[in-house]
Design brief:
heterotrimer, A mainly alpha, B mainly alpha, C alpha/beta, A: mainly alpha, two-stranded antiparallel sheet, 2 strands, B: mainly alpha, 16 helices, amino-acid transport (chain A), transport (chain A), transmembrane (chain A), ABC_transp_permease (chain A), Branched-chain amino acid ABC transporter permease (chain A)
Chain lengths: ~325, ~350, ~240
């Protein structure tokens, strides 16, 4: 099944086999309970997992949108996230304002950056072999994160939100900023979903995803849609970057790990499946945290990669797609 | 067949003999290049020896990647896995058990090949291809990095220091810092890797590999065991990459998970090949010669920057910025890479003569 | 004696039957034409017989050996090679290299493979293009390359998927002569899927007609076209419109 179909035919019908995924999460919760013998530890893992997962969802929706419409596996997505972190940092350190004021700025700046990348670089390789785009986004990723390194240096920076404190949620604790990030990510994700589903631009984007030639025939400027889509996808990284800035160590390579996670989410949701990415982001967040409880002594990411490889092998179309 | 137009009429006669001559030509050029390169330790100031070594490591890395991804069409974004296996096999055996690095190198190559065959088999069995394959190789390298980080048996995040010996030893692969032996050994390894790729490509297996890259189904339809040759290619590429890792460990005398299994190694395997020319014999080597010195050049530039760049004083990252730009420009403008483009140009001129 | 025997072959995709209970036999040294409207299952038949897909049921026997469900490369090694409807050259290699690769499958030195490739390339009238990179060839030449490559594997049975498609009428005759020569002079068994009726009528010793995954008629070419079921299946699709 092509990604174009993934965007169109599966647009409104989200779950085909999410039972498996949700079952997996419950199994993990049960296993974590058994392993730790503590409801508090497990509850905390679930809360943290959910909250992180919201951000993964937002980030991955952008990545999967780009893949679904442009067929580009964008290795630079994490670097763009790092740009948003620095945009937020720069804004806060210059103006001293509340970081959340930077949200529209980060979104706009990253939209522009993504659109520029597509317009100036990637539009010239459309239709070339996959390797060209992989290499180009790889080059872009190196370029962006090392420009950040040149400009800001490698020392960790941070953005503080005044009055941030832990909030008790059903016995588990999460920082206010994390809860805001979770809520904000879900709201923006829902917004993107509506934009794609309900607006004229969204229709045009889906038309291009379904058939480039067909879209061109009915008068859609395909290259313009590419540029806007890449901008939109990158804007997701912009939003995610700003939202996580208050509780993230800001370095030029801070986006790398998110990039990896976003790929896992995207593949799990089915490359190009925006709704799948939304749900998978949460699942990956949970798997990461619960895996951390289960595989003590191992990095929580290990479990995520394990799931990733299993999905690549067993269900390359993702958890939410039909087998082709 | 009147309707067919041969697009490059004039290049017809005598293919067989021309091929043989070109192979002999390649060997001749290799011998000449090696002879010139071997004098580098006498020509270069001692401070530049490290640059020369880096060029050699890049050349090995890129030669391995190019075989697998350029000739084999299996785009890997995780060659750090093989590099790391090579480096770790070396230090674990040497530091833990006093085994000669030469044996460690062979063991590492075997393990890396095994890893490649195992992961490749699963990937191809389940038809993990293209971008998915790239992501899978990436995930495997990252998993190995995480495993090494969290495994006390291989010293976790601390990694390994290769203990210094009282005196130089060929058997234990240790010489004075910046001794020419390091360069010569590295050069010899690059030559061996180059020859391995050259002869592999001229063997039946190598020809099948290229055919499979061009069209897997058509190759299978002619009776070629696609899986076997893909795995063979991956194994050889992994072995070459692992040798780079072992050499790295012996030269820098330090190995830790982030350094030898990190993304950087995967990227450094790709960049020189792309710059020089993917799917060409000389491309990775030429790319390494171009990309290798960049970091030194930029480092000295940034230490004492010209006035125009004074705001960059003391910063790092310029080298990667430059090679990132190089990669982007080459992909956009010269998709065959520098060597590939020049070769094409010369061939076209020669043919149209 | 039939060299290729297919019995009860069935294959479905996502619950939709592409082939149901198909029986086909081909006698050694003869040409079998397979015809049928678009979507009748002809190419699926090739794909299953040649090992690209595993069948859901049924057997494929080549020269007395059961080759059912073997992967494509083993089918080829067992002596049955197929060509593709859309030409699939090794685009970066020369014509001669394409054929030499095929010739080297199954053993022998590379030198021998090269010699054989030169023979085969000459035998299909392509020696002039031997050193041309396959990716730059035109359709007619690619068709010949496809054939040359298949022949170089020394098959006993050759499965040809629309070798004439994309050729202008003047290009077809030499290909047909070539195929007839393979049967008459080398005793090769050919199974070919073809839309162009005139070619099927001329070359085939027998014909099988597919429609919606089933065999609806079989027999001598002249008899088959008269068959009411065949006419029915082709109504609206234009028999012989290929010319």
């Amino acid at each position: 099944m092509s990604t174009a179909e993934a965007l169109t035919t599966r647009w409104r019908s989200v779950p085909a086999a999410p039972v498996v995924a949700i079952g997996l999460v419950f199994v993990l919760i049960a296993a974590a309970l058994l392993k730790s013998g503590s409801g508090t530890i497990t509850g905390q893992a679930v809360l943290t997992g959910l909250v992180n997962g919201g951000v993964y969802s937002l980030l991955a929706m952008g990545l999967t949108l780009i893949f679904g419409v442009l067929d580009i596996v964008n290795f630079a997505h994490g670097a763009f996230l790092a740009v948003a972190l620095f945009v937020t940092y720069q804004f806060v350190s210059t103006t001293g304002a509340n970081p959340y004021v930077a949200l529209p700025i980060a979104i706009a700046a990253l939209f522009a950056l993504g659109a520029l990348a597509q317009w100036a670089l990637l539009n010239h390789t459309m239709g070339r072999p996959l390797e060209s785009q992989l290499l180009l986004t790889l080059g872009l990723s190196l370029l962006v994160s090392n420009l950040l390194l040149l400009a800001f240096g490698g020392d960790p920076l941070s953005v503080a939100v005044a009055g941030d404190h832990g909030v008790n949620v059903l016995g588990a604790v999460a920082n206010q900023t994390r809860l805001v990030a979770f809520g904000g990510a879900l709201v923006l994700a829902a917004g993107l979903y509506l934009l794609l589903g309900r607006t004229r631009l969204g229709r045009a984007i889906r038309a291009v995803a379904a058939s480039r030639q067909g879209a061109g025939l009915v008068g859609i400027d395909v290259r313009k849609i590419y540029v806007l889509t890449f901008g939109l996808g990158t804007a997701c990284a912009g939003a995610a970057g700003m939202l996580i800035a208050p509780f993230t160590t800001i370095t030029p390579t801070a986006g790398d790990q998110f990039n990896i996670l976003a790929f896992v989410v995207v593949v799990m949701g089915g490359l190009g499946n925006v709704a799948g990415a939304l749900i998978s982001g949460i699942i990956v967040g949970l798997v990461e945290q619960l895996g951390g409880v289960l595989l003590t002594g191992q990095s929580p990411l290990f479990g995520v990669f394990l799931v990733f490889i299993l999905i690549l092998v067993a269900r390359p179309q993702g958890l939410f797609g039909a087998r082709s | 067949m009147t309707a067919v137009v041969a697009p490059d009429a004039g290049a017809h006669e005598g293919t067989v003999t021309r091929r043989h001559r070109s192979a002999r030509g390649t060997l001749g050029v290799l011998a000449a290049v090696t002879a010139v390169a071997a004098t580098m330790p006498f020509v270069l100031p001692e401070s530049q020896q490290a640059v020369a070594i880096r060029v050699l490591i890049f050349a090995l890395l890129a030669t391995g990647w190019n075989l697998m991804s350029g000739y084999g069409g299996m785009f890997s974004f995780g060659n750090a896995a093989y590099f790391g296996v090579g480096a770790y096999a070396d230090v674990v055996l040497l530091v833990g058990h006093g085994v000669s690095p030469w044996i460690g190198m062979v063991v590492g190559a075997a393990l890396a090949a095994l890893l490649a065959v195992g992961t490749g088999y699963v990937a191809f069995r389940y038809k993990v291809k293209g971008a998915y394959f790239a992501l899978a190789t990436f995930a495997i390298a990252e998993m190995l990095r995480l495993l090494a980080t969290d495994t006390t048996w291989v010293n976790g995040t601390i990694g390994y220091h290769v203990p210094l010996l009282a005196e130089e030893s060929w058997w234990m692969f240790q010489f004075e810092a910046n001794a020419p032996e390091y360069f010569w050994i590295g050069l010899a390894l690059v030559v061996v890797a180059f020859l391995a790729v050259l002869f592999y490509l001229r063997s039946k297996a190598g020809r099948y590999t290229v055919a499979i890259r061009d069209d897997e189904d058509a190759a299978a339809a002619l009776g070629i065991a696609v899986m076997r040759y893909k795995l063979t290619t991956m194994a050889l590429a992994a072995a070459i990459t692992s040798v780079a890792g072992a050499f790295y460990a012996q030269y820098y005398l330090f190995v830790d998970p982030d350094i030898v299994l990190g993304q950087t190694q995967s990227i450094q395997a790709i960049v020189p090949a792309v710059v020089g020319g993917v799917g060409t014999l000389w491309g990775p080597v030429i790319g390494a010669v171009i990309v290798g010195p960049l970091s030194t050049v930029t480092a000295s530039l940034l230490r004492t920057p010209p006035d125009a760049l004074s705001f960059l004083a003391g910063r790092s990252g310029l080298d990667v910025v430059l090679y990132a730009v190089l990669v982007i420009v080459i992909v956009l403008v010269l998709p065959k890479g520098l060597y590939g483009t020049i070769r094409q140009f010369v061939l076209d001129r020669w043919r149209s003569r | 004696m039939s060299v290729l025997r297919v019995e009860g072959l069935s294959k479905s995709f996502r619950g939709i039957a592409a082939l149901s209970d198909v029986d086909v036999e081909v006698a050694e040294g003869t040409v079998l034409g397979i015809i049928g409207p678009n979507g009748a299952g002809k190419t699926t038949f090739f794909n299953v017989v040649a090992g690209a897909f595993k069948p859901d049921a049924g057997t494929v026997t080549l020269d007395g050996t059961d080759i059912t469900g073997l992967p494509a490369h083993k089918v080829a090694r067992a002596g049955m090679t197929r060509t593709f409807q859309l030409m699939r050259p090794f685009a970066t290699l020369s014509v001669l290299e394409n054929v030499a690769i095929a010739a080297s499958v199954g053993g022998g030195s590379q030198r021998a493979a090269r010699r054989r490739a030169e023979e085969v390339v000459a035998s299909v009238g392509m020696d002039e293009w031997a050193d041309t990179v396959a990716g730059t060839l035109h359709t007619a030449a690619l068709k010949r390359l496809e054939l040359a490559r298949a022949l170089a594997t020394r098959p006993r049975v050759l499965l040809l998927d629309e070798v004439l498609a994309g050729l202008v009428p003047t290009e077809r005759q030499p290909v047909l002569d070539l195929l007839a020569g393979l049967r008459d002079e080398q005793g090769l068994t050919l199974v070919f899927v073809e839309h162009i009726m005139a070619a099927v009528m001329r070359l085939s010793d027998s014909v099988v007609v597919f429609d919606r995954g089933r065999v609806i008629a079989r027999g001598a070419p002249a008899d088959v076209v008269e068959d009411p079921a065949v006419v029915e299946a082709y109504l609206g699709t234009g028999v012989g419109s290929g010319d």
